Give the backbone structure.
Amino acid sequence: MNETKKLDVQLEELNIVGTPEEAVDATTIEQNEQNSNEEESPQVENEVSSVAEEEANVEAKPASRQEIIERLGVIAESDYEMGNRNEIEALKVLFYRLRTAEIEAAMKEFVAQGGEEALFIPQEDELEEPFKNHMHTIKAKRNAWLAAQEEELKANYEEKLRLIEQLKALVEKASQGTPEVNEFRALQTKWIEIKNIPQEKVTEMWKQYQMLVEQFYDVLKINNEFREYDFKKNLEIKTRICETAETLENEADVINAFRQLQQLHNEFRETGPVAQELREEIWTRFKTASTNINRRHQEHFEAKKEKEKENLEKKSAICEEIEKMDLSALKNFQAWNNATEHIIELQAKWKEIGFAPQKMNLKIFERFRAACDAFFKQKSNFFKETKNTLVKNLERKKELCDAAESLMNSEEWKETAEKLTRLQKEWKEIGPVPQKYSDALWKRFVTACDTFFEKRNAATSSQRSIEQENLKLKREIIEKIKAIDTTLPAEEQTKQLSALAQEWNSIGFVPFKEKDKIYKEYREASNAIYEALHINANERRIANFRNNINKGGSNLQRERDHLIRQYETLKNEISTYENNIGFLSVSNKKGESLVDIMCQKVEKLKQDAQVILKKIHLVEEEMDKE
């Protein structure tokens, strides 16, 4: 085997990678990897909505919070692994969800044993401190792990710089006719074995490496048959990569398509060059497909960020609404219960809203939780402070029940009814009692009151019959008033009307619910006669007074004294108005208007005084008759 063939055989075994023209654009790679990291770092929020998604990352789902702490303890004692991140976050969410379930179960048991939900206070969580200790240890190890990764990236970069220098030396030797193929292959293998380097150095480093590989190829005198075979094989591989990338453009799962594209980029890089005339074409095809997938991926995250921004605004609005609530205005149980229902509605609305931006997600949740905690803490304080009041109200209402029960068999109808009415009024003035006693206590009180009033109604049924008879008689009087002959002289009509009025006043009570209605009908019928006779309102008042004068010496004397006091009051009021009129200026329209109003007022008072004076004369006439 001559020297040329020997060199061809050695080069066939090399894993030759792409040319500088085929290197992936640095900006695209950096953006893709950044978005990939963002997608692989799910947001964690202490809410029920994220539990189902995170629990899938737990290999063996713990049945209790103690098991979660034990599992976190194992993770905390072992070396940190990047793969544990999702499991740790899932355990964290599950730990708080189980805590919430324990609180809800304890509250249900408390209520089942007769307690009130609003008075429930959960016990202090003894497991939270060991849980936080393990999380702190894990976080410290993770930070150490990240620092180690940073050092490793730096070391890898320095190692690749050394390999670049060695490649330069090999290229120099090859240009002088002494190619070191085995050494070149060893350097290439070592290059592939070195993994990650700092992201900002990837593209620059890769371009240098590709340039040196191309230079090494160019200085080697490889026969055309080998190069064409190698180019053809690489073209088939890169064509298949392009077809796969183009298929991913229609992939429904944008994230999955982006991840697969990263694998295709790696495979494209590691595949050797194609023929010079096809390099630009195959790279353009792959780059076009990559651009489309990257654009969809970018649009996905922009839409996601916009949605998260919108969610943050909605959650901020909920926080502001809770924080602005005037808790000092909540003075009773109903007000607190109404406010609590509103808070629960806001909490339900909060759960329906998705994640906020990652850097704000935990902060906005802590703000929301702090606002809710402040509300329920003040509510708890209110219920504690009012507990003694509830007990006092309970004792007082029990006393009212005892008093009502002692009166329910009494036959002193009027006196007992007044006492029970006072007890009912006092009952309304007393505040609430513990809810579990409220219905039974109210039923006891109402039963005692109803017992008395039912007995009274049964005993006074005859009285109701009399009232019905009185109602019938008053309706007959109304019909008689309507039947007065309007052709008679005015004096005769007023005489008949006066007689019917006296008859009306002599009739006793009517049913209470009919009292206002029957009196209105009586007044309308009487007024119709007065209006037809052109008798003014003052004359009617005097006529009605004449019909209703209380009979008897003492009653007449009291009536006269009362009227005299009214008359003296009106005289003083008239004097005051007339005196004030004398001080008013009438030099402007406003003064004239005020004087006119006061003069009208004085005239009306004088008319009222004349009516009262006539009433006094009527009373004195009755007193003289007696």
